[in-house]
Amino acid sequence: MIKDDWKLNHVGLFIRDWEIPMGYYQSTGIGVSIGPQIVDRDFAELNAGPPGSFFNREIPRVNGGSGPGKPKPPAERKPSTYRFMDKDCQVGDLLFEFILDPTIPIEGITHLCFNVPDPERETKKLTDKGCGIVLSFTQGDTILENYVDTRKYGHVIISFRPPVARWEKAWTDHNRAHPMASNWKFHGIGVAVRDLDRTVEYYEFLEVAAFQPESLIDSSAVKSVKGAEDAAEASIKARTRSALVGSVSFDFIQPGEEGGIFNESLDVRGEGVCDIAFTVEDLESEIAKLARAGVKVAFAGQPEAEAAFAYFDTRQNSGNIMIRLIQA
């Protein structure tokens, strides 16, 4: 089922120290800091636990991952007088929400937030199928955001907000028009999973995704892309299924061989989002631009019947997430 009335609001990334990824995204030209989101109440105040906030203590807390990898000790954090719990980064036309939690074991993307006509109704559809509510922010009778636990396969939470208000749209349009923002168009996310078939069954059971036929990623069957010839990458073979959730592509990937970026993602953090993807007008130009900023290509190719792509190894400094660019 295609959710035509689900409109992406933002992608949420849990990090230990937001100065590191924010500085990295800006120094490489990938993103631009845009400060706090415009919301009806300060989320830091809500987080203190007044009426209007609900935290489900029976569900594992939201964190950046569940894999066995041991994180490096966090870098010394710079002092900040910032009173909100999130900072935001504009990456192309994507609002990328950075959420601070110094105690998380593994950094990473935890949720995608959608504006929907009726958050209460969409929440109920998923809770009726056994999904719990992780947390909920409300103001009076208004739902600000409901986080629904859809992590059973793929470890991705879906959250719901009400339709975008006029003032929020103006804020979004202003950020997208920032002179330093790129013209990248958000495509979707890559999600590393251990069992592709069960993942597909789960999302079909939730009735939130419309799947495409299965395809295969095979590094031996792609041509090289100019500027990415030196990408150091092991042989990759992986089964994939792509699905539209709203207007966002969820590309589920089950790696089939040891080594490679997708197995590394599973080893470090367990199932979860391994990349955010954008379409670009000139992939070769973007590869060269990022190379000048010191960003290396991890895996790239030109499939015979599909668009050329490049995965950039931004994992160390950007919250354990790669950037994937696709030729439009």
Task: Describe the protein in words.
This protein is of the alpha+beta class and 328 residues long. The protein has two domains: 170 residues, 2,3-Dihydroxybiphenyl 1,2-Dioxygenase, domain 1 (Roll); 143 residues, Roll (2,3-Dihydroxybiphenyl 1,2-Dioxygenase, domain 1), CATH 3.10.180.10. Helix content is 20%, strand content 34%. The protein has a nine-stranded mixed β-sheet, sandwiched between helices. Strands 10, 11, 12, 13, 14, 15, 16, 17 and 18 form a nine-stranded mixed β-sheet that branches. It is globular, with a radius of gyration of 19 Å. About 9% of the residues have low confidence.
Question: Which helices and strands occur, and which strands form pairs?
Answer:
Elements: E1 7-15, H1 19-27, E2 32-35, H2 43-47, E3 53-55, E4 86-91, E5 94-100, E6 108-115, H3 119-127, E7 133-139, E8 142-148, E9 157-161, H4 166-176, E10 185-192, H5 196-206, E11 210-211, E12 215-218, E13 237-245, E14 248-255, H6 260-269, E15 272-280, H7 283-292, E16 297-301, E17 309-312, E18 322-327
Provide keyphrases for this structure.
nine-stranded mixed sheet; about 325 residues; 2,3-Dihydroxybiphenyl 1,2-Dioxygenase, domain 1; about 35% strand; alpha+beta
Percent of residues in beta strands? Answer: 25-35%
Number of discrete helical segments: 7
Structural class by secondary-structure content = alpha+beta
CATH architecture label of the largest domain: Roll
Radius of gyration: 19 Å
The helical percent reads 10-25%
Largest sheet: 9 strands, mixed
Which word captures the global form? Answer: globular
Quick rundown:
By secondary structure, this protein is of the alpha+beta class. The chain contains seven helices and 18 strands. Residues 40-50 and 65-84 have low confidence and may be disordered.
